[in-house]
Amino acid sequence: xxxxxxxxxxxxxxxxxxxxxxxxxxxxxxxxxxxxxxxxxxxxxxxxxxxxxxxxxxxxxxxxxxxxxxxxxxxxxxxxxxxxxxxxxxxxxxxxxxxxxxxxxxxxxxxxxxxx
Length: 116
What we know:
Elements: E1 2-5, H1 26-37, E2 45-49, H2 52-61, E3 67-70, E4 81-83, E5 86-90, E6 97-104, E7 108-115
Parallel strand pairs: 1-2, 2-3, 3-5
Antiparallel strand pairs: 4-5, 6-7
């Protein structure tokens, strides 16, 4: 499992006090980690807080990921979207939905959101 989020402190934003806490860009970081982890795991999941548009870009740039569970943009995907072989799940905001999913080697990800 990999987790990434929007960078909170970049080089442009850094002050002397915050310079030791710079954040890497999420998509290249996730891709680098996925390349390292893919040969070692059966299922590779990325938890993100970068928004739906960036999740789609991540799936495009990083086909080694099996599933992206994402947030930030409050997007509601009743069922998973799929880019290449990567499934993308987004559950909206404010605890309105719960995601119930099942993974199988033959069919990939199934399921979707249920109303709370």
